[in-house]
Write a sequence for this structure.
């Protein structure tokens, strides 16, 4: 499948929210909407990965199906699902971020991830390089609040953390810089949905 990049213009603030989304659920929407609002973004691009390099691909639904479900779960037209990593041929986040920055000069990107990913971030390829590519917003996730901020990556990132009250300026800051965003939390997961939980709990 070849896909065009979603539209952008120089100066736009765009959040890149990567994930397996296998399948997407209401907590993914909550994360994307919180980032959009609190970081003052113009768009959030949901990068539906061809396959997380650290996860088994057994049981991973086809990319087109995951993108279609993301499209049904998201409600704000500024939140745009894309499978662009498959077209770019990038599996590792560091490569995706470099490729997107090269293709979108002048766009102010922010990487968005849940607290569980900050906890495991030091296992990602060139994670310090990722932090040097663009600012990062971490969204609190139940069960990971303390392990995330105590993780190796968070220790290294500590000098670059900004106050949550300054989140709206994150996209303008020179990386490394990051913020931990708190707010209403959901313990929903794709694992639970695959096991029969509703992706849209009442
Ligand atoms: N309930 C949640 N709260 C905060 N962040 C979340 C939540 N669920 C997922 N995320 C974040 O969304 C991104 C994509 O997550 P992913 O698609 O792996 O969903 P998941 O529910 O964690 O999946 P799985 O249960 O299959 O591991 C990751 O950055 C993850 O940290
Ligand atoms: O680049 C890496 O080494 C790397 C390792 C683990 C996860 N990622 C990315 O992290 C994002 C979240 O993945 P997931 O499976 O937790 O939804 C997704 O964009 C993955 O490609 C990236």
């Amino acid at each position: 499948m070849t896909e065009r990049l979603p539209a952008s213009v120089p100066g736009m603030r765009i959040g890149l929210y990567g994930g397996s989304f296998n399948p997407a659920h209401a907590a993914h929407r909550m994360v994307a909407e919180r980032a959009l609002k609190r970081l003052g973004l113009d768009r959030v691009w949901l990068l539906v990965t061809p396959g997380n390099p650290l996860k088994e691909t057994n049981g991973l639904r086809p990319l087109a199906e995951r993108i279609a479900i993301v499209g049904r779960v998201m409600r704000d037209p500024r939140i745009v699902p894309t499978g662009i990593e498959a077209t770019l041929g990038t599996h590792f986040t560091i490569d995706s971020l470099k490729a997107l920055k090269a293709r979108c000069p002048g766009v102010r990107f922010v990487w968005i991830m849940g607290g569980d990913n900050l906890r495991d971030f030091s296992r990602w390829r060139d994670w310090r390089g990722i932090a040097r590519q663009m600012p990062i917003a971490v969204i609190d996730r139940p069960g990971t609040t303390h392990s995330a901020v105590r993780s190796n990556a968070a220790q290294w990132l500590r000098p670059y953390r900004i106050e949550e009250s300054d989140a709206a300026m994150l996209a303008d800051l020179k990386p490394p810089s990051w913020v931990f965003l708190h707010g209403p939390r959901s313990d929903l997961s794709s694992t639970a949905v695959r096991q029969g939980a509703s992706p849209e709990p009442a």
